Recover the amino acids of this structure.
């Protein structure tokens, strides 16, 4: 009786476990029926086998923000081999750190085992292997849920939803940060950015995508540490650039990159384009077009986006070759090759996009030829839509 009176007057605090707040459904508002059926079935199967299983990360964050998640990831204390044995349609992938893909119809659920920061290999954190810039060289150790939460980047991504008990486990105040729309780094920001400089790009991308503001303590070391991106493999930079540009908030993302001084490390080809008023208008229009298409659930091509970003350089090189005496058509194709070769040392755009970019670029001069039957034949070209969007 006394306990009930105290709870009524002062309010019952969420129960905790190993440092986490455990929020009931009445506090977080997420319903089981909002989950993908395959994600729910995956968690239930793991739980029935005696393992812990949670929907984790971005899906939980998006549900708290009343957004529809595109993907559902599951975290568990089961090892990859144990997960694979439970699901007939599953396979283990990855070398550096193994994960399991569980297939359910056309849906694939990514299941990861709880990971630790490496302290189990080294009793002192300072003993974890890093390079001369502080970047982690190895981060491949199993742990518990608290370990797994601590190694994630931002508080809003360290949220674990238990669909069986309908509870959210929140280790670092991520639910409160979602409500305040603030992006906050877990741990010391400078140390975490040094461990993986790509986290700076992720901060800019999430801030743009979610319309969050970056916590001042998280933002403070970014300007100083931005040059560390030069040490990151170009393929990783490209992957992060692609996520930003295809997020549906590319224009806001590019502005966020510039505001944080990160565009030099992520998209070097933007440096000269955005400094030129004509180039800036061109890129802004292209990014708006892409954002609109994604918002309308229409297809958007990475080849179109990167073709747009590179077109001012192709155009400049094309005119230079013409001025040097090359005929227009050969000069255009030489310019394409020169620009693509030059950018590979900056941004590792996969060669599979080369063909489509060249087709789009090659169509640009033909829009000036509007007489006779040529425009009608041009309408039948498979790349006409993408090329027309350039205008």
């Amino acid at each position: 009786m006394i306990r009930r009176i105290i709870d009524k007057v002062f309010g019952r605090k969420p129960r905790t476990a190993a440092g986490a707040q455990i929020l009931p459904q009445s506090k977080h508002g997420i319903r089981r029926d909002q989950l993908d059926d395959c994600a729910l079935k995956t968690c239930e199967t793991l739980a029935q086998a005696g393992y812990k299983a949670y929907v984790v990360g971005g899906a939980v964050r998006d549900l708290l923000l009343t957004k529809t998640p595109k993907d559902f990831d599951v975290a568990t204390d089961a090892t990859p081999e144990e997960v694979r044995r439970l699901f007939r349609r599953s396979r283990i992938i990855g070398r550096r750190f193994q994960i399991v893909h569980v297939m359910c119809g056309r849906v694939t659920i990514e299941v990861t085992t709880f990971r630790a920061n490496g302290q189990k290999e080294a009793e002192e954190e300072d003993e974890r292997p890093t390079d001369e810039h502080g970047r982690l060289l190895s981060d491949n150790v199993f742990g518990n849920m608290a370990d797994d939460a601590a190694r994630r980047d931002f508080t809003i991504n360290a949220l674990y939803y238990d669909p069986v008990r309908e509870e959210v486990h929140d280790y670092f105040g991520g639910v409160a940060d979602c409500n305040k729309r603030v992006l906050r780094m877990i741990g010391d920001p400078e140390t975490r950015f040094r461990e993986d400089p790509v986290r700076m790009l992720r901060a800019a991308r999430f801030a743009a995508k979610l319309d969050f503001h970056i916590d001042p303590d998280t933002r403070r070391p970014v300007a100083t540490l931005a040059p560390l991106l030069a040490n990151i493999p170009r393929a990783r930079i490209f992957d992060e650039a692609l996520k930003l540009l295809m997020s549906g908030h590319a224009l806001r993302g590019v502005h966020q990159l510039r505001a944080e001084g990160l565009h030099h490390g992520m998209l070097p080809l933007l440096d000269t384009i955005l400094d030129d008023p004509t180039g800036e208008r061109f890129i802004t229009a292209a990014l708006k077009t892409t954002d609109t298409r994604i918002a309308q659930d229409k297809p958007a091509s990475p080849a179109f986006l990167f073709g747009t970003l590179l077109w001012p350089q192709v155009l400049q090189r094309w005119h230079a070759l013409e001025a040097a005496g090359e005929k227009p058509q050969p000069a255009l194709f030489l310019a394409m090759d020169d620009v693509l070769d030059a950018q590979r040392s900056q941004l590792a755009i996969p060669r599979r996009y080369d063909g489509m970019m060249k087709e789009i670029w090659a169509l640009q001069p033909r829009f000036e030829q509007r007489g006779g039957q040529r425009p009608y034949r041009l309408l039948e070209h498979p790349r006409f839509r993408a090329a027309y969007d350039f205008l």
About this structure: The two ends are 74 Å apart (CA to CA). Confidence is low (pLDDT under 50) at residues 1-17, 118-126, 370-380.
